[in-house]
Specification:
The protein is an all-alpha fold. The protein has two domains: 180 residues, Up-down Bundle (Growth Hormone, Chain: A); 181 residues, MFS general substrate transporter like domains (Growth Hormone, Chain: A, Up-down Bundle). It is 77% helix and 2% strand. The chain has 16 helices and two strands. It has a two-stranded antiparallel sheet with strand order 1-2. Strand 1 and strand 2 form a beta hairpin. Helix 3 runs antiparallel to helix 4 and helix 3 packs antiparallel against helix 14. The longest helix is centred in the N-terminal third of the chain and has 30 residues. The C terminus is likely disordered.
Length: 405
C-alpha cells in the first residue's frame, strides 16, 4: 500500500498547486478594488509561472539529496505564506513579490517532488502513474474555480488570498508527509512474474547535459508546450475571432480544455507504457499539427471549435505526462529531480513564447508556425535513441519500456 499512499499524496499536492491556473478569476476583482491596469495585474501570473519553473531546478537538486517529503513541505509552507502575505498587499510590487515570487517559489519547490517519488515507486507503470500525478495539476484550476468565486463574492479578493493560503498550506504539507522514496532496489510484480527492476546507470545532471538526446527532447517539449499554451491561453479569443462565437459560448471551451487536459495526462501516459514513449509523442505531435493547420484556415463553427480545443487540450496533457517519464527512462531516477527540473525549463519558456508570438503575428499565422514546429518535433523524435554510456549499455536490461527504441 505504500506506493499508493505516495500517489494519494501526489494527487492532493498537485490539485492545490494547479489552482494557480485559476488566476484569471482575480484580475477583475483586483482592478475593481485597487484601480490597477489589467495588463499590470496579469503580469502577476507570468511572474508566478516563471518563478515556478525556475525553482523546479533548485527543488529537484535538493530533493535528490534530502528526499521529497521535506522539500515538498518547504514548498507548501512557502506557497501558503506567499498567499497569506498577498492578502495584505496594497501595491503591485507587493502582489508581485508575495504571490508571484514567494508563492511561485512554493509551487516550484513542490511540483517535482510527487512526480519523482511516483515514478520511482512504479517502474512498471511509469507513464500511467506520471499521468495520474500531473492530472491533479490539470484539474486544480477547475476544482478550485467555484471555491475561489465563492470566496471572492462572500469575503472579498484580499481575504480570498488569506483563506486560500491556509488551505494550500495545510493540504500541501499534509500531502507531502505521504511522499517517500522506495528502497534502492525495488522488486515488483509485473504481470505474473516477479522482476527485480534495477537501473544499471543513473545519469548525473552533467552526464545528461552531455547527451544530444537531452537537447532534442528539450526542444520537443518546448514546441509541444508552446502549441498547447497558445490555444489554451487564448481559447476564448480564438472562439470569438475565428469561430464568430459569443463570449459566453466561447468561454465554455475553458472547462472542456481542463477536462481533456486531465484525461490526456492519464490516457496518453498509459498508452506510452504499451507502445513506447516516442511512438506516443509522435502521435500527439501529429494530431496537434493537423489541428493547428485546420485552425489556421479560420473556417470554424462551434462543433469544430470545441473539437479542436479538445484535441489540443488532450495532447497538451500528454506532453506534461510523458516528458517526466521519458526523463526517468533515459536518465534514471536517482537524479530525476534535478534532471527533470532542467527539462521543465522548456515549459517555463513556452509560457512566454506563445503570447510573444501572438503579439507579433495573427492567430492564423501563429497556428501555421506551431504546426511546423510539431512536424519538426516528429523528425527530432526519429533521431533519438536511448542514451548509453560505457558502463551502461542498456538502462533497462530486463524490461523494455520504450518499444520504439
Amino acid at each position: 500500500m505504500k506506493r499508493w499512499l505516495v500517489v494519494l499524496g501526489a494527487i492532493i499536492i498537485q490539485i492545490n498547486l494547479g489552482a494557480v491556473y485559476a488566476w484569471s478569476l482575480f484580475n477583475q476583482p483586483l482592478i475593481d478594488k485597487f484601480g490597477w491596469n489589467r495588463e499590470d495585474v496579469v503580469i502577476t501570473f507570468s511572474i508566478t509561472i516563471a518563478t515556478f519553473a525556475f525553482f523546479t531546478i533548485i527543488a529537484g537538486r535538493l530533493q535528490d539529496r534530502i528526499g521529497p517529503r521535506w522539500v515538498a513541505t518547504i514548498g507548501g509552507l512557502l506557497l501558503g505564506v506567499g498567499l497569506i502575505l498577498a492578502s495584505q498587499a496594497t501595491t503591485l510590487f507587493q502582489l508581485y513579490f508575495f504571490y508571484g515570487v514567494i508563492g511561485g517559489a512554493g509551487i516550484g519547490m513542490t511540483y517535482v517532488c510527487p512526480l519523482s517519488a511516483c515514478v520511482k515507486w512504479f517502474p512498471d507503470k511509469r507513464g500511467l502513474i506520471s499521468g495520474i500525478a500531473v492530472a491533479g495539476f490539470g484539474l486544480g484550476g477547475l476544482i478550485f474555480q467555484p471555491i475561489i468565486r465563492f470566496l471572492i463574492e462572500s469575503a472579498g479578493v484580499s481575504n480570498t488570498f488569506l483563506y486560500l493560503g491556509f488551505i494550500y498550506l495545510i493540504l500541501v504539507v499534509l500531502g507531502a508527509q505521504l511522499l517517500i522514496n522506495p528502497p534502492a532496489e525495488l522488486e515488483k510484480t509485473v504481470g505474473n512474474n516477479n522482476i527485480a527492476i534495477k537501473e544499471s546507470k543513473q545519469f548525473s545532471t552533467k552526464e545528461m547535459l552531455s547527451s544530444y538526446q537531452f537537447y532534442l527532447l528539450w526542444f520537443m517539449f518546448l514546441f509541444g508546450s508552446m502549441s498547447g499554451l497558445l490555444v489554451i491561453s487564448y481559447a476564448v479569443d480564438i472562439g470569438v475571432e475565428l469561430a464568430s462565437l459569443s463570449l459566453e459560448r466561447a468561454a465554455s471551451a475553458v472547462m472542456i480544455i481542463a477536462l481533456f487536459n486531465a484525461a490526456g495526462r492519464i490516457l496518453l501516459g498509459r498508452l506510452s507504457d504499451s507502445i513506447g514513449r516516442l511512438n506516443t509523442l509522435m502521435i500527439i505531435y501529429g494530431l496537434t499539427a493537423i489541428v493547428m493547420f485546420y485552425m489556421s484556415t479560420g473556417a470554424m463553427n462551434y462543433p469544430m471549435f470545441i473539437l479542436s480545443v479538445s484535441v489540443i487540450g488532450f495532447s497538451f496533457g500528454g506532453f506534461l505526462a510523458l516528458f517526466p517519464t521519458i526523463t526517468a527512462d533515459y536518465y534514471g531516477t536517482k537524479n530525476m529531480g534535478s534532471n527533470y527540473g532542467l527539462m521543465y525549463q522548456a515549459y517555463g519558456l513556452s509560457a512566454f513564447a506563445g503570447p510573444f508570438i501572438i503579439n507579433l503575428i495573427p492567430f492564423t499565422h501563429a497556428f501555421i508556425l506551431s504546426a511546423l514546429f510539431c512536424l519538426l518535433a516528429i523528425i527530432m523524435a526519429k533521431l533519438i535513441v536511448v542514451p548509453k554510456t560505457k558502463s551502461a549499455p542498456n538502462l533497462f536490461p530486463k524490461m523494455d519500456f520504450n518499444k520504439n527504441n
